[in-house]
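Notebook B, p. 112. Complex prediction, attempt 2.
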Amino acid sequence: MIIDCNAHLGYWPFRHVRDSQPDEFVALMDSRGIGQAWVAPFQGVLYGDVRPANDWLIKAIGAYGERLIPHAAINPNFPEWERDFEEAVAAGFVGLRLYPNYHSYELGGSCMADALAAAGDCGMTAGIHLRMYDERLHHPRCMVPAADVKGIGAVAEQFAQVPIVLCNIKTLEIQGIAADVRRLPNLHVEISNLEGVGAVEKLVAEVGAESVVFGTHAPYQYMDAALLKMRESQLSGEDGAAVFHGNAARWMGLSG
Amino acid sequence: MIVDCHIHLYGERETVRESVDELLTYADRLGIDKLIVSLGPELCRQPDATRIEMDTEYVLQAIEHAPGWIEGLVYGSGNHVDKSLELMERHIANGPLKGVKLWCCRKCSDAALDPLAEYAGELGVPILQHAYFKGGGNAPYETTPDDMLVLAQRHPDVQFLMAHSGGNWEKGIRTVCRQQNISVDVCGGDPEAGQTEYAVEYLGAERVLYGSDASGRSFASQLGKVIGAQITDEARRLILGENAVRMFRL
């Protein structure tokens, strides 16, 4: 079974994104052979109070509990965020999504540490989005630079029990943290924004298959792009299985 | 047939042969049949006359190494019109190159580009022009789709291929949609869902071409824009290869 570790549902503010409702998205998954997707609400990126975004998601995916695994948008730089987190846990979310560039905090700072501590206490995975889309295409009145990945090594080491996925990371950004990714078993990179020919096989050679996970960033991006990246790269059966689902499935076990 | 109309050979490989072999290895895994190559082993936004000649010869070396797989374009520059025209005569009129690549030497709306466009029209070959609308502002001399439109309106009998669908593809595609001698390629941006459908809606499938911008981009991420698009099979065939075969006379 293929597990997509980076998907969103709901409403994106800057353009229409099709297939962003649960029925549509599950149909898309079926058409492409994706068994399970970890989904977060688009609205959580720009809302101040993220609770309505998370509430919307958990209600919307109700009928697809086996296919759509809910991840809560959490902003640890917003007052009383701990309450949002507790409500998300109670509502059945099994992972967090963090947007440090949109929510204005550093990967190596105290907000991130607080969020990862909370995730660790509840056995949650944490997806950290370095960006949501190409900075060159941002609305001219809403330019949001990507998060600086520097500092993730120390914080990932501090919270070694929390499986961390760096989402929407670019190939060049990985080069600066490759040693940390190799060294820390809980730190992983997701492939949806990797570029360069043969990017996945080159990454696996550099950091090891156990550190790489499959993600599409669908429906914002074409699901086929990530699937074709896996075909463009030539991985062993064992490595391919680890990237497509094994690593993610292992964390699901870790997180109960 | 799948033709990738937007390829560069820069990267970590030391020789043109190694660069071509690496690209063909990955292209073959995805069923891509032909690569149209432009520019040289290193990206140079403001090349001198010697440099555009060297980069064009680099493309010729790639073709020589893998004939049938590789096609190529002259690197043209509005800053070096005489040299550009010379290269067009030497390598397009006499073969084997199939068109002209313009990058960031000058905005293409600049009248300095007119002699190149006129000669491309005489030769019946297209001009591939980098074009981008960037939210944070373009680099100096970097062409926008607005510039592309100006040049194409001045030369209605020349075929232009606007790279990257203009970057901000909703705005870029709308900017040029009424100008029938502008087609677009889909390459060079993240694989944002909806881009290809949008291009087909506004331009028609006959004016949309698959390209990747490899080796900086992967073939796969850009091919996914076409394979994943909700368009007819006929439209997909046109975009993947038939339009390129017609435009570049392959």
